[in-house]
Amino acid sequence: MWQYADIRKKAWDALTQGSAINAIAATLLYTLIVGVPITLASTIFFIFSFTGMLSGIYLDTLTAKNALIFATIFLFFILILFVVSIFAITPLAIGYNRYLMNIVQKKPDNRFSNLFWSFRKERYLSHVSCMFMKSLRLCVPFVAVGVLSSLVFVSFFYLTRFSAAESTQSGEYFLAIPYLFLLIIAVVSPITAYIWFFRNVYAYRFTEFILAEYEGLHMNQAVNISVDLTKGIKFRLFILGITFMGWQFLNYIASGLLSYWIIPYMTTAYYKVYCIQKAEHADLFYGLTSSGDEMQINTIESAVESVNI
CB neighbours (10 Å) of residue 83? Predict the structure, then answer.
């Protein structure tokens, strides 16, 4: 079993012996591009909601109609961010991972244009559909909690009306049981959703690496392979991230400037784990087409070679 210190050392050596400057520059470019649509949408929403341009909405004059308009615009911006994330940011994330993978593999023809590698027409829709399924599967716990929370609030509403009609002391004691039950659901369900969400974050952690390495994967294939690769190591992946807390503390002191080194450093560390897991589960990649040289991965030995990278 791989050790945390060994993985971090391999990641450090891979970047410093490859091209650390290029990794930092690519990270800077990537974060700038990703930050533009998010910042723009946030700024527009701030202007609409806090400068009175949204039909003069203020807390002291809020009406049901204005609240509906505000909620509609809020949901509209959420939808826009989701669409931009799926169709622009996630393909860029795959290209960024591929660029770092090329640094680790010391490929001489690695260019910044590889950041936009997923936008080529022969793979764009495939990558978008795969990342859409990943995002959808990550959102399922929160959708479930949203539905459950709505049911809880509706139940509270009707219970409150029912309790108001009750005048006997015995009725109040009787109503305390469903109130307590609904309160437990309201507290436990979000906690469960967050635990399930973070579990899936690490279960799907290798999806971008798989898409950056192989062609022609269908919607759920990359995510399913990642789930199989991370069986039994999801908590170890979480701990691996925790081991970078010292760097995160230094990054806080440096006002975030170290992010451009920490991001590729951590990504490379996870890639090293991916290579090890791929070597141990080479059968999962049997018959897949490599996006590098269009060769078929038909033998276990060909997949095991990646562990030495």
Answer: 11
Q: What is the pLDDT of residues 149-161, one digit of tens each?
A: 767 776 766 666 6
Are 202 and 230 a contacting pair, CB within 8 Å? yes
The number of residues making up the chain comes to 309
Q: What pLDDT is attached to residue 297?
A: 41
Phi, then psi, of 292 in degrees rounded to 5: -80, -55
User: Distance between CA atoms of 225 and 265, rounded to whole angstroms?
Assistant: 24
Question: Across the beta sheet with 288-290, what order do the strands follow?
Answer: 214-215, 288-290, 296-297
Phi then psi for residue 127, to 5 deg, are: -70, -40
The torsion angles phi and psi of 296, rounded to 5 degrees, stand at: -85, 135
Residue 60 sits at φ, ψ, to 5 deg, of: -85, -10
d(CA 290, CA 299): 13
Cα(23)–Cα(163) distance, integer angstroms: 63
Q: Tell me the pLDDT tens digit for each residue of 205-251.
A: 999 999 999 998 988 999 999 999 999 999 999 999 999 999 999 99
Question: What are the backbone dihedrals phi and psi of residue 288, each rounded to the nearest 5 degrees, phi first?
Answer: -80, 150
Q: Where are the alpha helices (DSSP H) in 166-258?
A: 169-203, 207-213, 221-229, 234-242, 245-253
With beta carbons less than 8 A apart as the criterion, state whether 124 and 118 touch.
yes
The pLDDT of residue 212 is: 94
SS3 of residue 296 by DSSP? strand
Tokens of 194: 């967050």
